[in-house]
Specification:
Keywords: Membrane, Transmembrane, Transmembrane helix. The protein has 93 residues and is mainly α. Helices cover 65% and strands 6% of the residues.
Length: 93
């Protein structure tokens, strides 16, 4: 496999990871997180319940965000190699 083909496959995988991760993140935000908690203060006889309008990250959203980050890291790595190769070719020997 040539170096050019490997780079094209790498770019395709990186872009696909970013797109798939973004879709999983958006779909995961529609599903509510499945947990609850409360805090009880026995001295004050008061119960604290979190605000229901708060932002909770579901496991699907966390996985989607992780995939996006990994895809962006791969694209940054490939972009750095592309810039280095382009500048390396222009350097006089």
């Amino acid at each position: 496999m040539t170096s050019r083909r490997r780079r094209i496959i790498g770019w395709g995988i990186g872009i696909a990871a970013v797109v798939v991760g973004a879709v999983v993140f958006v779909i995961g935000r529609d599903r509510p997180a499945e947990f609850s908690w409360y805090a009880y203060q026995p001295i004050a006889n008061d119960v604290y319940l979190p605000d229901p309008a708060g932002f909770y990250v579901s496991p699907a959203s966390a996985i989607g965000a992780l995939i996006v980050v990994l895809g962006l890291m791969a694209l940054a790595f490939l972009a750095g190699g592309w810039v280095r190769g382009r500048n390396h070719a222009k350097t006089p020997t």
